[in-house]
Amino acid sequence: MGFVALLNGVARVFLQLHWPTDVLGGYCVGLLLLSIAVFWLERLEPEPKIA
């Protein structure tokens, strides 16, 4: 899925629909949101109980 997002951004720059900095900024914001979501979900997951 990430490969499709990467190709979509490259295609938008190639077709001159967006500036490269717009696409790079979108990648950065997406990576930041993904990092926050992973961090948050890992903290919500209960610790496994060892018997």
Secondary structure elements and their pairing?
Blueprint: H1 2-14, H2 20-44
Offer a few descriptive terms.
single chain, mainly alpha, 2 helices
Estimate the strand proportion.
Answer: under 5%
User: Uncertain spans, ≥5 residues at pLDDT below 50?
Assistant: none
The structure class reads: mainly alpha
Largest sheet: none
How far apart are the first and last residues' alpha carbons, in Å? 38 Å
Question: Nearest-angstrom radius of gyration?
Answer: 17 Å
Structure characterization notes:
The chain has helices spanning 2-14, 20-44. With 51 residues, it is an all-alpha fold. α1 (2-14) packs antiparallel against α2. The model has no long low-confidence stretch (mean pLDDT 91).
Task: Compose a concise summary of this entry.
With 51 residues, this protein is mostly helical. The protein has helices spanning 2-14, 20-44.
